[in-house]
Specification:
- This protein is of the alpha+beta class.
- It has one domain: YaeB-like fold, CATH 3.30.2310.40.
- Helix content is about 25%, strand content about 40%.
- The protein is built from three helices and six strands.
- The protein has a six-stranded mixed β-sheet.
- A hairpin with a 2-residue loop joins strand 4 and strand 5.
- The radius of gyration is 13 Å and the shape is globular.
Length: about 100
């Protein structure tokens, strides 16, 4: 299921990155690396996201109660597809699920 409004506040997303509470999935790290981005550069891109970069919120395939926000951002002639969610467990953190070239 999709919705046109973000689930997570962009200010909260950036706050978590700034506080070092941000993790990349193995897949996101691998695709970012293949595009020439280090983990710290990925985090810099997240800090540069703007509200108008928001594309959609979508639910996880296996749990329709968990939302993920998708952003499309153009960086150095690359259109990026960035999917993320905030995970609230013992420590709240931002999880970057996808960081790849946009094919939308």
């Amino acid at each position: 299921m999709d919705k046109p409004k973000p689930t997570y506040q962009l200010t909260k997303i950036k706050e978590l990155v700034g506080d070092g509470l941000c993790k990349l999935t193995v897949s996101a790290e691998q695709t970012a690396h293949s595009l020439g981005f280090s983990a710290s550069e990925v985090k810099d891109v997240i800090l540069r996201l703007e509200r108008n970069d928001f594309y959609k919120s979508t639910t996880e395939h296996y749990n329709h109660k968990v939302w993920q926000d998708v952003y499309l951002k153009r960086i150095e002639r690359i259109d990026l597809y960035i999917k993320l969610k905030i995970v609230e467990m013992e420590d709240t953190c931002l999880l970057i699920l996808s960081f790849k070239e946009d094919t939308v």
